[in-house]
Amino acid sequence: MQNSRVEDLPLSKQIAYAVGQFGWSTIVNILGVQLVFFYSPPADAGIPRFLPDFTILVVITTVVLLTVSGRLFDAITDPLIANMSDRSRNPRGRRIPFMAMGAIPAALFCVLMFIPVFEPESWANFAYLVVIQLLFFLFITMYVTPFFALLPELGHNATQKLNLSTYISVTWALGLMLAAQTPAIGSGLEGAFGLSTVQGFQVATGILAVFAIILMFIPVFVIDEKRYCESEPSQVPVMEALKTSFRNKNFIAFVFSDFVYFSALTIVLTGVLYYATVLLYPDDPTQGKQLAGLLMIVMTITSFALYPLVNILARKFGKRILVLCSFSFYAVVFSYVFFMGPLPFSPLVQGLILAVGAAMPNAFLGILQNAVLADIAEHDAYKTGIKQEGMYFGARTFMQKFGQTAGLFIFAGLTVFGVDPGNDAGIRYSGIAGLVLCVLAVLFFLRYDEKTVMKELAEAEKK
After folding, report:
1. How far is it, in rounded angstroms, from Cα 181 to Cα 289?
2. Looking at the domain covering 11-230+245-462, what would its CATH class be?
3. Cα–Cα nearest to 371, from 303, 315, 428, 304
4. Pairing between strand 60-61 and 55-56?
5. Contact, 378 vs 230, CB < 8 A?
6. Is there a contact between 6 and 224 (Cβ–Cβ < 8 Å)?
7. DSSP string covering 263-280, please?
8. Which residue among 185, 224, 404, 417 is buried most deeply as judged by most CB within 10 Å?
9. How far is CA 389 from CA 56, 105, 231, 444, in A?
């Protein structure tokens, strides 16, 4: 399906594209990894309770309400912005102008999410944070959804799309690793400048946000969308485009497996700080925080080491079987979480087992899920003659955000059963929840017909 009028993206610009994900991954993961811990901290974390102590129906707390409100709003904006991007006739292209508008505000509102301006434990803080979070998700969606829609447009065949998926998986992991260091950076600033725990964390967030802005603008300035993309504005209204996406059987199989996967992934990313400080180092939270940062580094490096293998195996065996195996292995990793702490080896070794174990399925899923969706979107364009990559990635992030919301809801809800040393049942139950979700992901993805999709795409490329 490659159009002879557009050029293949050179390696330097492929890297520039991926660097944009390093930027937005950093700020998204600061919020995703740190928010629950910051606003629902263990008793010895040195962080006051900024939100009211409020619980209904056992598991619904103010932190749950805060996270759910933001994710639900985010899910709604995804298909709207995707459709706006698909239909855009901007002379610079359909995607880059949206990314340029979203970068700076998204980073700014990420920082403000950790600067509550009212008295601790006040409802005014809750209301303020709800508004700030809605604005954050609006602008990060303005960047992320068009960013992903570029992937099948910049990758003109299956190999190019797989390579781009690999590169952005690397930069996603780098952003996650950097975001996980926020507490450690904050601790260093505390000692150097005499700041409180909260102040150190806030300054660290600000520094990382500025760095993220620089990274997010690199693809905006470097990539000429008109030169490297076949850009055909869609005329399909937003609701019709969304319905079309969800009528695609392969997309349904993919997106529901992706939904439960991101629920599970959100649980483990949110839980790392708790696993390290409550389960592994209950008597030394400082050492636990250091271990949490180390685990993210180990997880990232292990994933990097596996990326070449993922590419080789995907070309040899296809993506479907590897995705199914990854979901299955992740289920085993989650079951391990339930038993952490009392096991007969050191906390460090237990933590490393978790990091390496989670890194293996993350390496495969981080690359293959994006590549599978790019195949589905291109296959649909071939079958229907309508190019709406933005809507496919927007619909995917629509469901992905619901998955992240479910994961945050599950984890934050389980905290009512105990998040402190000696009273840690809620943390352990998160492992069981992740196990169940990964089994569901396997059942959904079994319905993806990779053989037909790839056969018809190969036929299209020959025309």
Report:
1. 9
2. mainly alpha
3. 315
4. antiparallel
5. no
6. no
7. HHHHHHHHHHHHIIIIII
8. 404
9. 41, 25, 10, 22
DSSP 120: T
Q: How far is CA 97 from CA 91, 92, 107, in A?
A: 9, 7, 17
Q: Could you read off the pLDDT of 132-157 as tens digits, one per residue?
A: 999 999 999 999 989 988 887 887 77
Helix ranges, 248-388 (H): 249-274, 285-317, 319-337, 347-384
Name 342's Cβ contacts closer than 8 Å, sequence gap at least 6: none
Q: Please, are residues 137 and 240 in contact by the beta-carbon 8 Å criterion?
A: no
- Domain extents in the chain: 11-230+245-462
Q: Is the pTM of this model over 0.90?
A: no
The residue type of 147 is F
| Local confidence band at 2 (pLDDT 50, 70, 90 cut-offs) | very low
Q: Kindly state the helix (H) or strand (E) to which residue 281 belongs, with its residue range.
A: none
Whether 462 shows a pLDDT value over 70: the answer reads no
CA 129 to chain centroid: 21
Listing DSSP states for 15-36 in one string gives HHHHHHHHHHHHHHHHHHHHHH
241 residue type, one letter: A
